[in-house]
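Section handout 9: paired folding examples.
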Amino acid sequence: MSRDRSHQPAQAVPGPDPEPQSEPQPSEGGARPRSPSAAPPPEVAAPDGAAADATEALPFGRPGRPLGRSPFVFGFTAALGVLTAWLLVQALTATASILVLIVVSLFLAVGLDPAVRWLQRHGLPRWAAIAAVFAAVIAFFAGFGMAVVPALSQQAGQFAEQLPGYVEQLQNNSQVRELDQRFGLLERLQTYLTSGDLGRQVFGGLLGAAGVVVGAVFSTLTVLILTLYFLAALRSITTTGYRLVPRSRRARVRLLGDEILNRVGGYVGGNLIISAIAGVTTFFFLWVMGVPYALALAIIVAVTDLIPLVGAGIGAAVATLAALSVSVPVAVGTLVFFVVYQQIENYLIAPKVMRSSVDVPATATIVAALVGGALLGIVGALLAIPVAAAVQLIATEVALPRQERH
């Protein structure tokens, strides 16, 4: 059995023969006394040599004890952390609108990706499929503008032409004349019209409306451009995101992430199909009933139908008010049509279209739509349901099995 080399005696270095010395006598216990001139063992001298080498490696000496426990360092670190958090909050607040546009663009890109993949399966290269889908999106926005903007401008012109007649009808009304005799309404109205306040308010209102229109156009163009870039780079974005996950968990995260993207894409595609069906059905009904601007109203109904919970009611209200300009029976018939159609859409069309995309309980859908609408308005309501579906998938596949194991 071999001995540990650390307990073996050090070999003597060859040199001149030492002078003979008398051997010390053993003590009473039998142990031989140690010579004062004997060299210390190597294990005792090694730490001193290592410390000397470490000191020589550091030209400015050995560092002292760290200052981690100093109250000054702790306070400075805490203050720096609070300042960093405050700056991050300010940056997020300043860029909130841009971040919303980025999220909407990414959401649309994920929703349009199934259509791109469908075209790829039918023989088109990816760039051609992206170009075809994006051309369809641009055509929809162009058709919406061409159908709605002329109708709104024509209605505004007709209202301006008929405004004197409305004023004359008010003057001939007995109740208005009585109120004018009591409170002098017509005199006050005439004074207000002849003063400069009306012009300033109208001019400011026009500038405000122009600013809203310019902002809407800028936001729309930004969303379209970002959607195109995200749609073209969606594979690289997802691959880079998966590479940020540790390798031991990357396969499972990839499976869950792909399933979430498929559900979001299925939700967006299914919602677009349902809205298209609603728009086409509304157009034919309003066209048969003789309601003016049937195409513009049908597009408005299709766009508002994308909004969960309240979107269908908004579109129905707009179309019913437009039908009221024809006659009261036509307006009543329009209202009945929308009530019947909503039942058909909720119980026949939507379940078949959304069968394989998003399966979220009705209570979770309502709660998610309300919370999303309170946080981000219409955009939040649109994003709430797929986010709820993603949370439900993660809870079902990750959180609940982990709780069962414990």
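Moving on to protein 2 of 2.
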Amino acid sequence: MLKGDGRLGHDLDPQDRAPQDACGVFGVWATGEDVSKLTYYGLYALQHRGQESAGIAVSEGDRILVYKDMGLVAQVFDESVLSTLRGHIAVGHCRYSTTGSSVWENAQPTLCSTAGGGLALAHNGNLINTAALAERLPPGATRSTSDTEILTALLANDANDRERSVEDAAAELLPQVKGAYSLVFMNEKTLYAARDPQGIRPLVLGRLEQGWVVASETAALDIVGAAFVREIEPGELLTIDERGVRARRFAPAEPKGCLFEYVYLARPDTTIAGRGVQSTRVEIGRRLAREHPVDADLVIPTPESGTPAAIGYAEASGIPYGQGLVKNSYVGRTFIQPSQTIRQLGIRLKLNPLREVIAGKRLVVVDDSIVRGNTQRAIVRMLREAGAAEVHVRISSPPVSWPCFYGIDFATRAELIAGSLSVEQIRDSLGADSLGYISLAELTAATTIPAGRLCRACFDGSYPIPIEEDSLGKYLLERVDA
């Protein structure tokens, strides 16, 4: 069977990758359920969080079986594969790499042996003390170059060396792990879940009729028919087996949830901290309209990332909302790479203007963020060529000026357009008639979460967990291994 490469449309322009989240994780403990298919559908719901590889680990109680490969969830798994993955416990993962290359060896779940059997682990986030953790392992202890396998190997070693339960080993190890981690892991009989003390990446618990589900987002609970129970708390470790769910705190909670989840990363039908992401994004658009009004004829989104905020902007401004750009939903789902001639068309592979809608109109174009600016620059040019009289760009996040070290593969500060240019310089670079970003204060207010409980580092450079320069870099472990 041919395997797709899992590329998204933005990969057609390698100079302008959109923000990428580390991964989506999913776990289920359920008797009498087809857990591999539940996990497949859960990962399908989380596909937006990672498109490079996908994997599922299952156990019937006596051994763990893992299947993973490069590509999208629907490309990696089919009926024949899922039919071989039987059991009552499963852990699933869809990956976007933030530590380690995008290769099969770094696909998840990772699997290690312990004295009592196996240990499979899936991770969303990014560790910032990976090099220090790797030094605790003997040479050759891992085969991949991901922070996730380092963590899995340490957990397995701690359980082996001290003849401790996986739960006790995790409770002792996790306080020594620095960075962002939402974990779902399992041995042959038990499902575990843990969230870092800052709770940077989301993780939720759901209830099935005969079991339990853990997932990165509530949307994944919905798709498998699980009822939302609660968010897993920062610094909390859950153990799930036939006795139910047991909670254990391994570190004091210091909540710093990622603000960018509200802007871009999470699905609009997900709920974070009791508030729907869609309603938050619409409210951001309303506030953006009040902060940056303009005389215009039509508000259009950059599909689909700018749609909720564009709806809010139109509502608050009184300017009609419309669709001025059509998106090709299938771009990037092909095995054929574009030729240089096609590549030069750039954004037109993904978006095309509705000329009869925009010709002669003064447009407000709403998008969620600007990273390098290449995509927005191409859109402005395309709209002008299609006859737009004016193009006013409005962005539903503040300028992204700082890289993220907690699970979003942002560019370095030198590559971020807002890292070196002022708003007016960015406007000039885009060729827009005006440019307005929502302020950090208004974005934060739209979430209803106090600023002190959010990580806003990509906007203000204030990192909640201190960063050590020598522990950074996507290819850190590959340099060590070289």
